Amino acid sequence: MRAPSVGHTAVGRWCLRHLQLLPVILLVGGAFLDYRTSPHVSAEAFYAAAPMTAAALLSLRATVLAGLGACAADIALLTHFGLIGASGGRSELAAVATVSALAIVVNRLMYYSNVRLEAARRIALAVQRAVLPQLPASIGSLRIAVRYRSAVQDAQIGGDLYSAQDTPYGVRCLIGDVRGKGMDAVKVVDVAMGAFREAVEEEPTLVGVAARLERALLRERARRAGPERTEGFVTGVLVEIPHRGDELRLVNRGHPAPLVLHAGNVRSAEPSEPALPLGLAELGTARDRTDTLPFPAGATLLLYTDGLSEARNRAGDFYDPAAGLAGREFPGPDGLLDALLAEVRRHSGGRITDDMALLAVTRSSGCTGERA
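The structure assignment produced for this chain is given below.
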């Protein structure tokens, strides 16, 4: 698919910025057309379109002014051609006045609808943020940063989740993505987060943590009835960073592979064997495998959900985080995530079509990293 040219993109941005001038353009253009053409040619459509356009784009005051301007322009031109007293002229003016009045009603309906939708969005986001934890900026020698960006289309919140917790076995992290959206997805997030917080303190291995999450999700799904029994699985990555040493361990359950950044190099931590998402292990026979990767001082682990890798530009090209981060160095996890979000916004033109969770962990030098 051919990418749009720079000139076409610039014209598109200019049009969007000046879209609010459209009612004025319609009024002026209609009056000019009416004045320069035969008396039998009417610009009634332009006069009627101006207040309706204002109703969709502008405030109540601007809509009222557009309606009054449409009626005034129509009256002036009908008077100029001596048609103000004719039946056709009166019908035309009545039509413009009626559409102007309807435009005011439409403007109010759109306003109250937007107010309700915005309230629903705020409530939905508040619920989701209450479920997700506030992560510490550092744990031992590890610096941690997290970002969450929600698409929030029609208040349908997604099911991205993340966590990082200090445990007797090291710092353990989770990032995941629940199938589906809305409050059902948030319920699954709540179940998964609760199971993770408990399991990471008790299970000596990541495989054991994954098994606990699996059982919790299966119990949640069993409590549901009907079509909802097919919902509730989670793609996710479990991470364990020991307090000592220079390595980390991963268990990937059907999730985008994390990235390890070090000295400008980017390595994709692909799993040694593919695995089904959490909650679907009963459909396969494969057992979880733990992969071990080097994680020296100065390295950063980037965990993300598919909202990042599936962000598209106008040409339909997906964003490639490995390519976008290659050859670059960042002062810390916060700088990395801020730069990454800025680059994704540029790539997608600011259009976020799916929720995006990002978790970055950087191993600093000069600390033992032992658990307090």
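Interim note for the steering committee: Confidence is low (pLDDT under 50) at residues 1-9, 367-372. The radius of gyration is 29 Å.
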